[in-house]
Amino acid sequence: MIKVGKPKGQQVMRTSSMSATFLVMYCVLLFDVVGVLGDVGTAASYGPPYLPTRCGGYSEDQFPPGELFAAVSDGLWDNGASCGRKYRVRCISGPKRPCKVRSIVVQVVDLCSHDPCPATLQLSNKAFDAISKIDTKVNVEYAQ
Fold first, then answer.
1. By CB distance 3.0 to 4.6 Å, which of 50, 93, 106, 122 could disulfide with 71?
2. Rg of the chain's alpha carbons, rounded to an integer?
3. Is the pTM of this model over 0.90?
């Protein structure tokens, strides 16, 4: 009995097609992972009075629904261009394991009023309570 196999040319073509498929899948996965990662900084809470702000003055319309907003440090302020930017923020560490599992999206409404700013992001009380169990500065990952 004679075994008939596939010609070698088809086998090479299938192998290179599989390699190309693997490469495309790898690139898509890598893009997804890199897209999730952000910068690392610190976050602290700040409370009222929230007005006036450097972005919207005395207008209460500047605050997003849910009161999830932030004042940012000089490094993120960008000469006021950061007004209205949104950042996804996630607590990653801090004293006494303060982090809650979820991430939130905050909108920039102000420049930090302290010089130097005590954190990269100063979150409204409601925003800070959403990511941390205790009221102390925490380490966060954030991405626009």
1. 122
2. 24
3. no
Distance separating the N- and C-terminal Cα atoms of the chain: 67
The alpha carbon of residue 41 and the mean position of all alpha carbons in its chain are separated, in whole angstroms, by 11
Which sequence spans correspond to the domains of the chain? Answer: 1-37, 38-143
Q: Which two tokens stand for residue 120?
A: 């990269």
Which residues pair with residue 121 across a beta bridge? 43, 72
Q: What is the pLDDT of residues 77-132, one digit of tens each?
A: 999 999 999 999 999 999 999 999 999 999 999 999 998 999 999 999 999 999 99
- CA gap 107, 130 in Å, rounded: 14
Task: Say which residues have a Cβ less than 8 Å from residue 13's Cβ, sequence separation at least 6.
Answer: none
Contact 100, 140 (CB under 8 A): no
Which CATH code fits 38-143?
2.40.40.10
Instruction: Answer whether 103's CB lies under 8 Å from 139's CB.
Output: no
The encoded tokens of residue 138 equal 């925490």
CB neighbours (10 Å) of residue 37?
9
